[in-house]
Amino acid sequence: MIRSGAQMARRLSAGFLSRGPLFSAGAPAAGVPLGPGTVRTMVALPWPFSSQPRDFSLPNSSWGSEMMRLYEHYNSQCEVVTEAGERQRGPWRRLPSYNRSLKYATGGVYLSKLIQSKARLFTRNIRAPGAAFEYVVFVNKEEQRCVCVFQAGHLLEGPPGHVHGGAIATMIDAVTGTHAAYLSGPVMTANLNINYRSPIPLGSTVLIESCLDKNEGRKTFLSCKVTSTDGSKLHTEATGLFLSITVGKLLGV
Ligand SMILES: CCCCCCCCCCCCCCCC(=O)SCCNC(=O)CCNC(=O)[C@H](O)C(C)(C)COP(=O)(O)OP(=O)(O)OC[C@H]1O[C@@H](n2cnc3c(N)ncnc32)[C@H](O)[C@@H]1OP(=O)(O)O
Asked: In 10 A of CB 4, how many CB atoms?
């Protein structure tokens, strides 16, 4: 059956809307029950021999002690054990991250084929662990807050020994954009306003925090701070405006 671009966009749009949040990843997390009596475990085979997509938000050998400490801090709050010994979802949720982000977003596989099969998420296309953007994003739905633990690799140098301002802007866009998409569905960055307050040493781990300021119709306003991991040093602050878009907009119909 031949469909017009507009028909295809409507179908995809309906698919996105009816199939839940963008971040229901294609591959289930480790140990997630799939149905009565079945538990699929995502075995940590050394990439690239695994048939599963690589989730870049999981620890790898390049992560330093501070990156690991903060990962464990937030990850331990993704699941809590009640007094009765039951496991329950905690206040935080780790968002998976793939280099074909659209393909592994719910319903995105068709869209990723239509747009460009070779497309890769900019921050996730350098294979060497630790060379560039190492990060993991956690969201707290109740507090409408998002935290990213970011370790900046040697390929991101700008001023000698420090992180390039464009790489910092990239991470701010990625974190606030992910947060906006989590809150509001498909969005595009309309405005980013960034103030650089103190340089980030290359190789260091920093925290990038995004908070919802307000929602007004199609507009999601967020503010963002990049700080040292103990919060004592402010590196960068930013505000962002994201506009909700239809899938048709991405397809240009
Ligand atoms: C399907 C997705 C699944 C994804 C699942 C995986 C997720 C994996 C996470 C990856 C995370 C990476 C996140 C990267 C995100 C980018 O980097 S996006 C790339 C950079 N951004 C762009 O290229 C956007 C380019 N600009 C545009 O396409 C269009 O201008 C926009 C932003 C879509 C807006 O166009 P529009 O929809 O026609 O809206 P328009 O009618 O012009 O304006 C609507 C309202 O917004 C206001 N407005 C528009 N622009 C502005 C502005 N710059 N400043 C202030 N107000 C503005 C207007 O004044 C108007 O206000 P009202 O009059 O309604 O009060």
From this structure: 9
Q: Among candidates 85, 63, 87, which has minimal Cα distance to 76?
A: 87
| Nearest residue by C-alpha to atom 48 in ligand 1 | 190
Q: How far apart are CA 220 and CA 236, in angstroms?
A: 20
CA of 24 to the centre of ligand 1 (A): 23
Q: How far apart are CA 82 and CA 79, in angstroms?
A: 10
Domains, the chain, ranges and CATH?
5-23+55-251 (3.10.129.10)
Residue of 95, 183, 243, 253 best suited for mutating to test ligand 1, as the one with most atoms within 8 Å of CB: 243
What is the ipTM score, two decimals? 0.94
Q: Which regions in the chain score pLDDT beneath 70?
A: 1-51, 106-115, 251, 253
Active site residues: 173
pTM, two decimals, is 0.84
